[in-house]
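Retro notes, item 3 of 5
We never archived the inputs for the shikimate-3-phosphate complex last cycle. Fixing that now. Sequence and ligand:
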Amino acid sequence: MTATVRIDPSVQVAGIVHTPGDKSISHRALLLAALGDGTSTIEGLSRGEDVGRTATIIQQLGASLAEVGGTIEVSGGRERLGAASQALDCGNSGTTMRLVMGLTAGLSGTSTLMGDSSLSRRPMDRVAIPLTQMGARVEGQGDKLTPPLLVHGGSLHGIRYELPVPSAQVKSAILLAGLFADGATTVIENVATRPNTEEMLLLAGADLHITPEGSSSAITIRPSALRPHAWRVPGDPSQAAFFIVAGLLASKGAITVPGLYGDPTRTGFLTVLERMGGSITRGEGDDLEVEAKSSNLRGTEIHSSEIPSVDEVPILAVAAAAASGTTRFIDVGELRIKESDRFSGSLVLAQRLGATAFAEGDDLIIEGLGSASAFVEVELDAHGDHRMAMAAAIAGLVGGGATVSGFDSVATSFPGFVDVLDSLR
Ligand code: S3P
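Structure as it came back at the time:
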């Protein structure tokens, strides 16, 4: 099924937006709860399909899960977990697949991991290479080891591994495998990516140390038993980004988003929007509140390391299309291997809005129209990519309307997105 959704424009956009629980923290809360000896609780878990995949998989691996009045209870423990006889279906979720690769590498036996057509095109060699060095064996399709995968786990040993591309998913897979490995496992990170796995492993009692090495950081984990924990999942800043840009680009109004996870690896997009002239008021720390008011934006240069994982580029491309002057996204080739090719998706979206957009190698350049009121009515096939669908919808809301096909993908991360959008008119 590929749903088509029509979004009508609105001159004013105003209100308070409550985003779903942070997706990255939700996946990790489930996985660490499955590993913790006893019963963990999770408040504020994302209800998106991606996190639902991880929830199903931890049960297939041996944990049990119940919902009691909105709180998720997971009973886990190392002794309960083992490779499942049935395939582990990760759906559209790269985070599920890559983190579960790390976990199943530590379990003796063979696990089968599969995904939908989008995930089946994404490279898993970036995770398989370090896991193989640790003693696991991973089989996949072609050179890039695309899914479906077989992970033959057990008897791992520690390694020291420098990440060749900044990736929280790869870092996390290695650290999870390191829980099961003989000796120390060290991951060297030259560009800081979201620190959820290491922060949450520490809270669950893992033997983990983070040491600066020049401008890099070395994260070392030793085999550890985890204890259960009461997890509280804050709001997702990457989902907030869509509505923050809506608040900035609308001709009138203001949007407030409270309760967000505020780590700097996730809020780079706010710094970018502030540099573009966005009127943004933000608090600090773990319970971040952001207010965004109607603003005239101007173009800027954005290096990928400012927004590691580049999740916010599709919506920043919409902001760039509304800005006066030129915006250059530098070194954003990773966009090509996300849920869809977001490099060409963002470029095409900006062009369809009426802006000039082109590529120079791995850089994406957008010459903006000076205002979202100059956007033309846009039609976009989101190619089953939730972030492309939501970016196009916001462009339609603040511009000249949008018709977006492939919109059902939004349920992977933000069920109810259209209702929230409609409540702001
Ligand atoms: C995520 C890491 C990022 C990001 C994804 C979630 C995570 O991917 O794009 O949405 O939860 O670890 P990379 O690790 O490939 O940068």
